[in-house]
Amino acid sequence: MEYEVTIGMPVYQVEKYIRESLESALSQTFSSIEYLICDDCGTDSSIAIVREYQANHSRGKNIRIVRQPHNMGLGCARNRLIAEAKGRYIYFMDSDDILALNTIECMYEQAKKHDADIVYGSMEKVLLYDQGRHVPNTKYSYKVFLHEDEFASWAYEKYDRIQASTCNFLIKVDIYKKNNIQYKPINYWEDFTTTMDLPTYVTRVVMLPNVTYYYMCREGTLSNYQEREHIQKEEILQTMRAVTMIKENSERVRNKPYFANRMLKVMMTCFYVCCTILRNRRNITPSFNNRELRDFMKYPVAWSYVCTLRHAPLFLLGKLPSYVSVWQMYIMGKAKHLV
Questions:
Q1: How many other CB atoms sit within 10 Å of the CB of residue 276?
Q2: Count of CB atoms within 10 A of residue 290's CB?
Q3: pLDDT average, residue stretch 270-279
Q4: What is the model's pTM?
Q5: Are 155 and 244 within 8 A, CB to CB?
């Protein structure tokens, strides 16, 4: 059976939350939806709950479960969902978050109206540890981009202009398949390496002000390592590896008008990660040395090109002696209240 849209949901150890998430997906006002569940081999009853809906819900026949060979993580689960999807478009959601009732309908209407490669929706955080308070997370104005490089130029113009999360956009499955776009098999920031570069692969894009996704924030489940008292260095190293992958993918867009802004966005990310490490240095085990932080601030581009940029001092941090570089990071981070 073919569908217009596949909702792709990786599932791992979410038995407490998956009912509410599934209900929000199955209650969508849009009719032609495949519900593709990737079983990432958890040990709780999450998949048993999915099978219960598969057997008893009125849309159960549209639920399909694919199982990984073993627990492989979010990146590999998303790649499997892309490979298996029967919809023309795919929409990722996490198995502990909630969709608005008409999320797919309003996104699909815009996709068809403008023959869009991708449609982004706005998102809210729901702070369940603070009486369910709603906090805007990613709020877009209505925009339509129809010309080559137009969206990428806009997206990279400011640091936080588009979301880092893979959830809450409707995208043509062929964008992934024709460009061989893969999520990285890492546990932290696996989506950032892909969402950071998606603007370089799409032309026709719609941004919606509609809140279509509710990111459920529960006490004790915050993903930011900077919120914890004890942090394993390996977690941060995985984040650093993800950003390094983006640096290494730079040459592909070297001649694009947005290249310098894309490069700056990557470097700002590096700087923020380094400031987080400096702010939490006592809590990280084992610790980072100055050379590791300095080397993370290097960028694989000629210094002669960097010198033409107005933000050249940021790139200089990767060229200085390590102790001087880290001292400069600390001073700059203090000025921006990051350290």
A1: 20
A2: 15
A3: 95
A4: 0.92
A5: no
